[in-house]
Amino acid sequence: MVIFGIYYKITAKAEKYRERIGNMLRFSEWIVKHRVLILIIGVLLLVPSALGYVNTRVNYDILSYLPKDINTMVGQDILKEDFGQGGFSLVMVEGMSDRDVAATADRIKAVEHVSDVICYQSMTGCTIPKEVLPGNIYDFFNHGDNTMMAVFFDDTTSADGTLAAVEEMRSITSEQCFISGMSAITLDMKDLTQSETLIYAVIAVILTSIVLTVTMDSFLIPLFFMLSIGFAVVWNLGTNILLGEISFITQALAMVLQLGVTMDYSIFLWHSYKEQQKNFPDSRQEAMAHAVAATITAVVGSSFTTIAGFLAMCFMTFTLGLDLGLVMAKGVVCGVIACVTVLPAMILIFDKPIEKTSHRDFLPAFRRTSSFIIKHSWAFLTVAVAVLIPAVFGNSHYGVYYKLDSTLPAYLDSVKANTKLAEDYNMNSTHILMFDSSMSARDANKMMNEIKSVDGVQFAMGFNSLVGSAVPEEVLPAELKSVLKSDKWQLMLIGSEYEVASDEVNAQITELNDIASGYDKGSMLIGEAPATKDLITITDRDFRIVNFLSIAAIFLIIALTFKSLTLPVILVSVIELAIMINLGTAYYTGSKLSFIAPIVIGTIQLGATVDYAILMTTRYRTERHSGRGKKESVSIALSTSIKSVITSALGFFAATVGVAVYSDIGLISELCMLLARGALISMAVVITVLPSMFMVFDRVICRTSAGFLPKEDTGKKHRHIFRTA
Questions:
Q1: Is 178 within 8 Å of 94 (Cβ atoms)?
Q2: Which of 172, 237, 253, 317 lies at a CB distance of 3.0 to 4.6 Å from 53, suitable for a disulfide?
Q3: Could you give the angle at the alpha carbon of 581 between the alpha carbons of 594 and 562, nearest 5°?
Q4: What is this structure's pTM?
Q5: Is 50 exceeded by the pLDDT of residue 40?
């Protein structure tokens, strides 16, 4: 009975497998038969996708992705609800008379979405002598021949209305006017991103096509690869409208990343098609049908690791990860669909021109390279262990920056304004303290005096500081009082000489919060610097979570794919070594990385390049199972995989390196350079270290993984089971 039970299970499993293959083949045959219809549908889908892309809002405010329940975000909501104010900007005018400054303030106040303007001239109407005002108030607004005004907007920092207001303010003011603050930076970043994004795609397509022309066997096939992936990219970007909005980082990287990570699928289909033509020389349609069926099986499994890497980012509390993760996971799905529908249709329709442009393979066979690596496997493994130590150290000690505008070009108007603010007023950041409006004037002044004594505080201005002993409260304009005080809250502006995200400003924020909570437990300190301090804490925790989840997910996928206990450890370790080398290089070159870089690189490089290792491992298992010895199996696996790994890695490199060199946005340039470098490092590590690990751990792998034991060993095992039964 045991024998019949085993036989039944094997037969049933084989039957299910044949049924699944049969279903895929029928689906593939339908695609081949209706190739023209599929291409027409693909083209028609571009229309709504293009409309969706154009109408998808892009968010340029990184800090808006912080959790909504932290004090800095709650305070911003209260500021908007109770005071009708969202973002604010400090505007400097140079070499103007008091009356000209007042006229400029009036013009700015008339701009739509500007809620209030505070300056010495608007406060006094140029009628109250400066000697009557508290000295520090006049000094706050005036420095030499420079005059500063605080402009408040009725919407958030990166809202469309706020950005439109900043743009209009620039158009109605002279060159003597400098508009600083996050809203001005956001507007410049928006203009810069919009001017560069399409150029990113063009550069990536040109460079990738050059690589494919050299590595493929046809001059024309790269064109259809790019068209097919282009379909998928447009579908992906168009469906982003369902998300409501996407970040500018996602918009800038989506095209390039989708091209880089899904190009392998097109290459696999083409190689499979060429292979099937040998089996079906008289029918290209039949060859393509079998190629599509094989591609579905291979590509769907391969895409799981990439999707897992992107989806791991969705678990970040800093929801920029959710934004980028969802869009890129969706992009991989679109890439798979286009690969098994649109691309086969294009290849069959344009088969003759493709055939006419065929050329010999320009890449060598790399047989000597493979033999050299196998022969010196212990040497490569020793080098890997030696490199691991500095890689781990560098990966743990590279510098990180959180102030993203620090990487923007110096020629931008907002950068010039912020630089002038720092130079003329020694002010690099501005905080807003919100506290109970019922606090007595005595306590408010006492608290303000303590705040002024904190290291790095350049000024502190609140409602009570405006009401000096010589200025009755009744004299102040009602609209001025409404800017700083409501029924529940009153505001205090605090200027700091410390830069956002610096250790000094973070310590200052902690001290300011301690002082304020001593007078009002419900007080809140908001602004770019406090929000960035929260960002540092949150993303540090997110990195650990996302890193663990991405490794765990891909570990599990590999374990289930190969039914192995040891291969997940080996494959993930190899790619993690490449990632540590990539990130650790920043330490040894003395460069800093953005806070988002470790998260993006840690997930994308792992998810996208572990496929190189899976490809080689699959062939290694096949050769071992066929009865070949360890050395021969590893040698065949390496020699047959090396060209595919090099082609894939060079394609990923080409898709990203051009953007890294071209982009004026430091964050985008940095991420693309890391991805380009990571592709080459992963390629080198997979080609040299992975085969060496197979050579060393072959016996352990074979005993702890399914499908590796030679046929005779498997047969002996089965005969043993039967005799026992």
A1: yes
A2: 237
A3: 110
A4: 0.86
A5: yes
